[in-house]
Amino acid sequence: MIEALKDKQQRLINSLESISYRREAFKYIDNKERMVGLIGSRGVGKTTLMLQYISQFKVDEALYFSADDLLVLNYGIYDIVDEFYSLGGRVVAIDEVHRFKNWSQHLKNIYDSFPDLTIRISGSSMLNILYESHDLSRRLVLKKVKRLSFREYLILKEKIELDAHSFEDILENHREISAKSIQKHPKILTYFKAYLETGCYPYGLESMFFSEKLFNALEKIIYEDIPSLNKIRYDQLAVFKKLIFIIVSAKVPYKVSVDNLAKELGVSEPTLYVYFDILNKTGIFTSIKKYSKKLSRKPDKLLFDNTNILYAYAKEYKINTEIGTIRETFFASCFGDDLTLYYSDIGDFKVDEYIFEVGGKGKSFKQLEGIDNGYLVIDTDLTTHERKVPLWVFGLMG
């Protein structure tokens, strides 16, 4: 049984020979932590990271398998690890771990039974992993694999490698960064437009039917992940679909009035807040809140997690995407880990002490008048103004 799993493992590793680039997220699992779990949207590249990690070891040292494999479902996670350990194996990587019933209890037993075993897990259902992993809180380190950045897209799709820059470096040196990049790669803005439509997920780099595949993955979240973990009746899922339609059909980036939206959806305000929380955890939406020292559940603006999702829904519903929403969605998607983005009454967003207004080439400083720390984020290739930053440059943050 172990040999059969090893054969599958080797075939999968062989299929990755053409992918030499290791994403920044590789560091999440390439460390001395005993048990690390990768979460992230379907198709974001978790399996590739796991296989790249396993490929570093000798064949007898490490084992990769998917928990939805028929062999695994028949034998069980614990028994497979037990046998592999007895043969000298010391590293296991379990993909789609949420597919195995009571997976968190099995992992707890494995962790406690084999103290020198290194464990790596991943799952495409972020909701399941987040809800079930509390039993492993003292053992498991969870890390989220984000969508491809524009910089990563350029490396993988166009074989163009631009330097990563910090947020502060971009604000201070964006003129030099954009000028040098455009001089060397004059089609940057063309690549950026393609990235916004199909570049956030590795499988979008080659697939002719990417938008359809992404829409199907999003449907799976709505109709499988959400009801399986939240005790939500199937008929209530129509509320999620209606909310998504409201956001994608809005003519401007959607500003939230909780009482009006609750009435439009036919739910109570507390229920709506629960739905906001669920959709944030699924990776479909990003709720942007106004900066406040007080804890608040109220989002002031709702955006999709990335522009590919916006395009996929717009294509499915036959709705024209609004350029303003596309720009703001991309800008918001560049933040979230070390830097928190907030809604701002002045301009569009607040990050640290800076205020940002996002727009096209003709955008003026009118809305930022008198704001010394205000920046215009402009949808253009390069600028010569110290407080006008090309939108695409934020895709180089890393």
Explain what the structure shows:
The chain is of the alpha/beta class and 398 residues long. The chain has two domains: 2-144, Rossmann fold (3-Layer(aba) Sandwich), CATH 3.40.50; 155-396, no CATH class. Helices cover 43% and strands 14% of the residues. It has helices at 2-14, 46-54, 70-75, 77-86, 103-113, 126-132, 150-158, 167-184, 188-198, 210-230, 237-249, 258-265, 269-282, 307-317, 323-333; strands at 35-39, 62-66, 91-95, 118-123, 141-144, 254-255, 285-288, 301-304, 341-343, 349-351, 354-359, 374-378, 388-390. A five-stranded parallel sheet has the order 2-3-4-1-5, sandwiched between helices. The chain has a five-stranded mixed sheet with strand order 9-10-11-12-13. The longest helix has 21 residues, at 210-230. The protein is globular, with a radius of gyration of 22 Å. The protein starts with a helix and ends in an 8-residue tail after the last strand.
Q: Count of helices?
A: 15
Structural class: alpha/beta
Unreliable runs, pLDDT <50, ≥5 residues?
Answer: none
Helix content estimate: 40-55%
- Cα-based radius of gyration, to the nearest Å: 22 Å
Principal-axis shape equals globular
How are the strands ordered across the major sheet?
2-3-4-1-5
Number of distinct beta strands: 13
H/E order of the elements? HEHEHHEHEHEHHHHHEHHEEHHEEEEE
Number of domains: 2
Question: What is the percentage of strand-forming residues?
Answer: 5-15%
For the largest beta-sheet, the strand count, sense and barrel status come to:
5 strands, parallel
Global mean pLDDT: 93
| Amino-to-carboxy terminus distance | 42 Å
